[in-house]
Amino acid sequence: MEKGAGSPSMGGSYPQKNAEILSSQYGINLFLAGLLLTFAWAVHAVGISKSHLLSYLITLMLIQLLWMLWYLCRSCTQRRLIRDKDTHAGARWLKCGITLFAVITLILDSFKIGYYIDFSNCLSPTEGIFPVTHAMHTILQVYFLWCHAKDIIQSFKTLERFGVIHSVFTNLLLWTNGVLTESKHQLNEHKERLITLGFGNITIVLDDHAPQCNCTTTTLCSIFSQGIYYLYPFNIEYHILASTMLYVLWKNIGRKVEHHQQHKTPFKFHGITVGMIFGLIVLTSTIAIVVVYLIQIGRSKIKSELALTMFYLHAIFVLALMCTAGIVALLIYRLEDRSLDNSKNPARKLDAELLVGTAAGSWLLSWGSILAIICAQAHPKYTWYNLPYSVLVIIEKYIQNLFIIESIHREQEKVNDDIKTLRIVTISRGSTLSLTPSYKEIYNGRAADDNGEVPCVFKGSICRRENGGGGGAKEETSQENSLVMHSASDFSFYSRNSVTNNKRRILKNIAAFLFLCNLSLWIPPAFGCRPEYDNGLEEIVFGFEPWIIVVNLAMPFSIFYRMHSAASLFEVNCKT
After folding, report:
1. What are the residue ranges of helices labelled H in 336-375?
2. What is the rounded distance in angstroms from the CA atom of residue 204 to the CA atom of residue 87?
3. SS3 of 521, please?
4. Distance (Å, rounded) from C-alpha 95 to C-alpha 245?
5. Fewer CB near the terminus (10 Å): N or C of the chain?
6. How is the chain split into domains, by residue range?
7. What are the coiled-coil residue ranges (predicted)?
8. Cα(30)–Cα(357) distance, integer angstroms
């Protein structure tokens, strides 16, 4: 009987599991085909042009547009179709972040349209169709994520799995295309700097995909061509954030959730002044360092070495501060006795996996630099700063990952009703009255009853109201003794609560500081300040082409790690 009763439920799960496997395989093949097409264009494969790659991406975006329109129409006509929501997915701050990146992506698309108009005589029509399609795709996708990122789909599950996974890998391919285009631009600039500095022992051939015709408006063409590459970092972050949010939506299809109250955790600036001040100092100094670096690098050998030295010293100082802050936070966690939340949560699991997975990109670069310093025969002075910098990058990510992952798994403190109110017993004519004023009133000594009587507990002391009669003195004395004991225990609780609040304040300041530091460390590689290119030592040890391949593969993950860490630390700050 038990077997018969269990069979339907087990049998019902197999089609859904098969749908999950089939949809994931569909998405992977979709991505691999696009990846090979992108690679073929990058290496100038015979018979493969940019128009073929853009046509493939346009087709994928149009299919996703059709699916999103169908989903939105179905949701509007059947509003009660989807009832369950994943309260952990699609946080408001995450939606605001992806909206900001999407707005800058739309500006990027407008620049591409202007660039196509100026070079329309020798560019393929797909280069004009692509930014228009991408702009429509961006607008509808942001609206879709705002409205349905928390959905737990329970109908048309097989069809929806394919639609969502198609969207995930479409965004990953658009991310790959953006990363490749931006990397090729950075590599060309690096090669031009090497030519300026006179490196004759390295074979340098510029990878030029520029149009083979003259621009109709020279000034506008220059603005569009240069502005496009400064906007690419935001486009890259937009697509990777969209793909992660859609992946959580895909994992939630058919999921059974426990209905429990989710406490809102709004972001507040109160209590994080110290962390914000130090973080803003780091952010401001980093922007200044990046500006000076980009101006000085490649001008001359001396200026390039000074720019690299300045970058390494600043980064070493910031990373040392981040390591110290992370260690302090972990020590505070060791002093606390709070259980971890091990419930099933796709969004939280993905966050932890992305932190460790993307950190491997910068770890690869750091170990490459360490090995190059050890094996190199000649060591210019500035290259020695690369050693502590690379070691600190590895250590800092170890500590920060541990802090973030433990923070997002810690259960929030539940405030007991006994903590919210305190029982005050007053002595009045031989009887007791029970009052429950707020904690704030008690702490400030302003609690009083409705009759205007003075409270018995005031700033840790016991005061006795004068009575007209002299009877019942012994009873009053015993009641006073019990009140003294009760008051001592109450204020012992206040002392413990004060320590807890101080720990929480320190943790919030650390999270705010690390949040701004990660934003600061995202800026240099995202906007072209990449000492891994300009150091030169790794290229001598490993060879120019092999090291450039390693940098181009690892750098996108390193850049994404900083933005994802900043997003996770923002959530930690709200939760603490």
Report:
1. 346-375
2. 53
3. helix
4. 9
5. N
6. 16-256, 268-412+498-575
7. none
8. 22
